[in-house]
Structure to design on (65 residues):
């Protein structure tokens, strides 16, 4: 299911680009519950070129909210 944008990666993106984003506590909880994903859009595939779930490394401690 498509969700709201938590943070834009870049626009337009260039090869090798780096950056940071500030997120809220609510957004961090969403990530900890594996409820966030990255969807990369391109001009060839404006609906999304590739998509992947965001996961913590290491995984959160069981029972931690």
């Amino acid at each position: 299911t498509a969700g709201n944008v938590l943070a834009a990666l870049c626009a337009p993106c260039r090869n090798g680009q780096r950056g940071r984003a500030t997120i809220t506590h609510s957004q961090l909880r969403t990530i900890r519950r594996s409820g966030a994903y990255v969807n990369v859009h391109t001009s060839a595939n404006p609906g999304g070129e590739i998509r992947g779930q965001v996961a913590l490394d290491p995984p959160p401690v069981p029972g931690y909210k």
Remarks:
- The mean pLDDT is 83.
- DSSP finds one helix and two strands in the chain.
- Residues 53 and 63 are 20 Å apart (CA to CA).
- Helices lie at 25-32.
